[in-house]
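Hi support team,

I've been running sequence recovery on a batch of backbones for a student project. Most finish fine, but this one hangs at about 90% for roughly twenty minutes before it completes. I'm not sure whether the input is malformed or the queue is just slow. I've pasted the structure tokens below so you can try to reproduce it. Let me know if you need the job ID as well.

Thanks,
M.K.
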């Protein structure tokens, strides 16, 4: 159960870089690229393409798993009985590594740093298709992050006096690569020193929910993760405790976490990696005896849709149920592949939301994606926004999607009310700054 290889395609569907595929026929990666491009060409919308596309032209069972990033397509090919979830997990990890190295992932960035991307691909996926080194701390020693100095050193001839050669085992070559494995702790570098010691935690919770036509919540779940940014000297041993750890269910931890301590005391005991990492993932588990198992949704939508010939009209009322200010609220409705235009007006009501025509809200119609998008930058508690409008279609019986897609963010808020109790340091004598921040976001499907 391995990944055959990885291919990165530009927005036009042409390959930018790919794995060597040395043990496969030359046409093997080309058939997967063709299968994906054909599926994208036939789909009415790019986001309606199946994320796993089978390739029927091959004698063996094969498929390609793909994700979209900045207009590009990252494609992982699998065969036989390989689990597609492994391919998607590797794609997410590799994309995160690229973001850590380059900041933004674009076609120009990948082409300008082609050698670095190829080295990362060789180090993260071995010749048999199994994920290899995916730790940012280890990779940064094996593959130098792109910088002006590293590019100058790479362009200098190995025979130039006074310049270390990577092929001759200089400080940027074999010794640098071996430094990644010199520490007795795989995820942490040896000899780390900081003038200012600090560790920051971001508790990020993501709500996924589906609401039926009658406004009743069909399903709602909250998934959280604890993101950390560590800048601590030496080998610090930390213990993180919570006031209500029972709200964390189905936990998955970074390899640095001692599982026995969590099982015994519900405390996270760990020696942190250097830099950014995800300490834990969890699913919010409502308290036993709760009247409802679904997590309450912090907003409500009232949709009046009137379908007619060659178009329709609508009145949408979005109301906040949250005690906190909601930010970056987005509502999208696919109006059908035959939609031609839309016209809307905005108004607001409620406690201190703003006024009619405020810059806090706007709407757009994407003629390429045939999607109506409504954006609200800030929605205060108990505030409401109303969007009235109409759209036209080139066919007599328009076929819009019967579900709205809603996204939102709530800073300084946690659905689970998870609270950090203490963070204790042992093994080092320095004083450290520690900070914890909560934020939540959501993605809803609201049917009408």
């Amino acid at each position: 159960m391995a990944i055959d290889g990885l291919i990165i395609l530009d927005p036009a569907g042409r390959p930018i870089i790919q794995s060597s595929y040395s043990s496969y026929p030359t046409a093997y990666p080309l058939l997967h690229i063709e299968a994906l491009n054909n599926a994208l060409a036939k789909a009415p919308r790019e986001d309606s393409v199946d994320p796993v596309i089978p390739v029927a032209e091959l004698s063996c069972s094969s498929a390609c798993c793909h994700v979209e990033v900045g207009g590009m397509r990252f494609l992982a090919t699998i065969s036989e009985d390989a689990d597609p979830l492994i391919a998607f997990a590797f794609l997410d990890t590799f994309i995160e590594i690229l973001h850590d190295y380059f900041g933004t992932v674009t076609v120009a960035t990948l082409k300008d740093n082609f050698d670095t991307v190829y080295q990362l691909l060789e180090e993260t996926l071995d010749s048999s298709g199994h994920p290899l080194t995916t730790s940012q701390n280890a990779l940064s020693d094996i593959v130098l992050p792109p910088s002006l100095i590293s590019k100058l050193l790479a362009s200098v001839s190995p025979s130039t006096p006074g310049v270390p050669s990577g092929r001759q085992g200089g400080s940027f070559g074999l010794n640098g690569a071996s430094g990644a494995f010199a520490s007795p702790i795989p995820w942490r570098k040896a000899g780390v020193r900081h003038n200012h010691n600090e560790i920051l935690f971001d508790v990020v919770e993501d709500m996924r929910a589906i609401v039926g036509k009658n406004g009743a919540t069909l399903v709602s779940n909250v998934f959280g993760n604890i993101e950390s940014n560590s800048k601590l000297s030496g080998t610090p041993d930390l213990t993180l405790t919570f006031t209500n750890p029972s709200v964390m269910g189905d936990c998955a931890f970074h390899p640095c976490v001692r599982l026995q301590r969590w099982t015994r005391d519900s405390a996270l005991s760990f020696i942190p990696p250097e830099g950014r990492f995800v300490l834990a993932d969890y699913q919010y588990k409502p308290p036993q005896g709760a009247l409802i198992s679904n997590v309450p949704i912090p907003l409500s939508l009232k949709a009046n849709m009137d379908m007619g010939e060659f178009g329709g009209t609508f009145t949408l009322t979005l109301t906040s149920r949250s005690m906190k200010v909601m930010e970056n609220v987005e509502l999208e409705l696919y109006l059908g592949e035959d939609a031609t235009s839309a016209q809307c007006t905005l108004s607001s009501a409620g406690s201190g939301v703003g006024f009619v025509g405020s810059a806090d809200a706007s709407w757009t119609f994407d003629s390429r994606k045939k999607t109506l998008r409504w954006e609200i930058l800030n929605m205060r508690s108990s505030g409401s926004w109303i969007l009235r409008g109409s759209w036209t279609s080139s066919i007599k019986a328009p076929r819009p999607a019967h579900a709205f897609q809603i996204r939102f963010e709530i800073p300084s808020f946690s659905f689970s009310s998870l609270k950090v109790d203490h963070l204790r340091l042992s093994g080092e004598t320095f004083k450290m700054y520690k900070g914890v921040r909560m934020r939540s976001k959501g993605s809803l499907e609201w049917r009408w």
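--
Follow-up from support: It reproduced on our side and the slowdown came from queue contention, not your input. Confidence is low (pLDDT under 50) at residues 159-178, 351-357. No action needed from you.
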